[in-house]
Amino acid sequence: MSGHSKWATIKRHKAKMDAARSSVISKALRDITLAAKHGGGNPDGNLRLKIAIERARDANVSLDSINRAIKRGIGEGDGGPIEELTYECYGPGGTAILVEAATDNRNRTAGEVRYILSKHGGKLAEMGSVAWMFDQKGLITVEKEGLSEDDALAMAIDAGAEDMETEDDVYEIYTAPADVFEVSQRLAQAGAKIQNAELTQVPKTTVVLDGEDAAKMVRLLEALEEHDDVSKVHSNFDMSDETAASIPE
Fold it and tell me: Which class does domain 134-202 fall in?
């Protein structure tokens, strides 16, 4: 998969430390609301919701808060409707960024995303000028423990996946967008331990940065991902192992 990058690996490792951040709870609840909005409020029939609930529980989100988020997603709870938005952006060194956000106040979110970009050497792009650089894919993250690469690949093929990459501690399995949850269910039935299943944007090609440009880009991506209203950040940014090792955590 040409779009995989060192940033994707760094981001996954950083996510393990996110439980210490206050934004994790609000993001977890927003994921639940969106999952319920698109697939209904029953986790038994909505794998996206089931995964979102499990992540919320890992972040010590209360059951009452989870239930309120589900009700909001199906239109029965308090608060205004959640609107999903995508911002197309440019980053340092000519990199491309897609920012997915979910908000009940689009003007506030747009202004804050614009401020983050300007602070870290980025800017908003015109609609359509960045999105074409990415392909939407389903991404399923499977735990490596107890599962060999050959067995994981065989399971992925049997389940209808398109591609698989092996990382330090997980297998990343790619599918057609419409197939992600069906394939993840087949993998789970075959014994795979699913960490996550979601839609992602894979860059068709990557832009390699080094030095200060790479450091600025990492800071920009981190600032965007830390924003409460931001759901996902995708980029065509890549860097060498040496550059990645030189950037402080």
Answer: alpha beta
Instruction: Please report, in angstroms and rounded to a whole number, the separation of the first and last CA atoms in the chain.
Output: 26
Amino acid letter, residue 140: I
**pLDDT digits 0-9 by tens, 8-29:** 666 655 554 454 455 778 888 8
pTM score of the predicted model: 0.84
Residues 6 or more apart in contact with residue 72 via CB below 8 angstroms: 33, 36, 78, 79, 82
Q: Cα angle vertex 22, ends 124, 217, to 5°?
A: 35
For the segment(s) 83-132+204-246, the CATH number from 1.10.3720.10, 3.10.400.10, 3.90.700.10, 3.30.70.980 is 3.30.70.980
Contacts of 94 (CB under 8 A, 6+ apart): 207
- Could you identify the residue written with the tokens 């909005």? 37
